[in-house]
Amino acid sequence: MITDEKERNIITDMEELCIMDKSERNIITDIEELNISERNIITDIEELNISERNIITDMEELNISERNIITDMKKQKCEGEDHVYRNRTFVPSVGMVPLTHALRRIRCPQL
Predict the structure, then answer these.
(1) CB 67 within 8 A of CB 80
(2) Residue-range domain boundaries for the chain
(3) How confident is the model at residue 83 (pLDDT cuts 50, 70, 90)?
(4) Higher pLDDT, residue 31 or 107
(5) How far apart are CA 30 and CA 26, in angstroms?
(6) Is the model's pTM score more than 0.90?
(7) At 27, is the pLDDT very low, low, confident or very high (cuts 50, 70, 90)?
(8) Phi, psi torsion values for 81, nearest 5 degrees
């Protein structure tokens, strides 16, 4: 009879262990879920970094196009200036004209 009681106690202890295992399993599941959410956070951070890199790339492209615009403006300024050559000047819309005619045209654009 004593052995039967001891056996029952052992079985009860084993059942309690099984219950503990279950809660342990729940803890492990919770940790796995935490890991998944942690991975999601890391993924979100990586996506943020990628979009941040894209923004930086866009800014670099803007800077390049800004530099191109400035270069174009400098070119236009050079091309738009009247180039005097033997009392003649270059007017972009007309071509080479006598300097006096160009000056008159600047003063009176309707001519």
Answers:
(1) no
(2) 2-80, 82-111
(3) very low
(4) 31
(5) 6
(6) no
(7) confident
(8) -70, 145
Question: Measuring CA to CA, how many Å separate 60 from each of 53, 56, 70, 97?
Answer: 10, 6, 15, 43
Which one, of 76, 110, 107, 83, lies nearest residue 97 by Cα?
Answer: 83
Judging by beta carbons within 10 Å of its beta carbon (0-12, 13-18, 19+), is residue 89 exposed, middle or buried?
Answer: buried
Joined together, the tokens standing for residue 88 give 């003649």
Q: Where do we find the tokens 């200036």?
A: 81
Residue 55 contacts by C-beta under 8 Å, 6 or more apart in sequence? Answer: none
- Residue 105: pLDDT over 70: no
